[in-house]
């Protein structure tokens, strides 16, 4: 048990440490002289949401509230999938313009003229990251009331007599350490995927010639 708890805390600390590189991407995006784009706002929003979701997740896991923390895995995956749409279109600035005006991403199409629904974004992302499909399905089960939630309120009193007990409360009861480990590893991997996209955007910005420089 102690080894599992140590592993959970080590993973949570790794997730805490993602704050620094996320903030560094923010600094690169707003760095003077790199130009300003509508896509910047989308990336900044994703950074802000990532910082909030990862902090919320680590706080909830440490305070033994897995039921609430598990939802955040799905939200963070949504963060990544929606940012990925920026890289599936021919004109990111037009995409960002419509997004900021309130057009739903699912109502816009990618460069292959396919509507970018959540399912489509998930399928496209799964081509490079096979684990996304399973995580998407599993974490979607936490969004709506499901057997996963119900079983958290049940405990076996006497297996032979098939007696069960019920309990409610604010903290974890029947949550195995493996579930916490898996969820934290997912949050870490999703954050890395988000940062890969942010790296791609930052490099694109940094290649744009500054006024008066011309093209190389």
Describe the structure.
- This protein has 216 residues and is mostly helical.
- It has one domain.
- It is 64% helix and 4% strand.
- It contains nine helices and two strands.
- It has helices at 2-16, 19-30, 38-62, 66-84, 92-100, 118-126, 131-143, 147-151, 177-207, and strands spanning 154-158, 163-166.
- The protein has a two-stranded antiparallel ribbon with strand order 1-2.
- β1 and β2 (163-166) form a beta hairpin.
- It is elongated.
- Mean pLDDT is 88; it is low at 211-216.
Concise summary:
With 216 residues, the chain is mainly α. Helix content is 64%, strand content 4%.
User: Globular, elongated, flat, extended or rod-shaped: what is the shape?
Assistant: elongated
> What is the CA-based Rg, rounded?
21 Å
Main sheet specs: 2 strands, antiparallel
Which spans of ≥5 residues are poorly predicted at pLDDT below 50?
211-216
Mean pLDDT: 88
Fraction of residues in helix: 55-70%
How many discrete structural domains?
1
The separation of the N and C termini measures: 59 Å
In total, how many beta strands? 2
**By helix and strand content, what is the structural category?**
mainly alpha
Strand order of the largest sheet: 1-2
* DSSP helical segment count: 9
Set down the secondary structure blueprint.
Blueprint: H1 2-16, H2 19-30, H3 38-62, H4 66-84, H5 92-100, H6 118-126, H7 131-143, H8 147-151, E1 154-158, E2 163-166, H9 177-207
Antiparallel strand pairs: 1-2
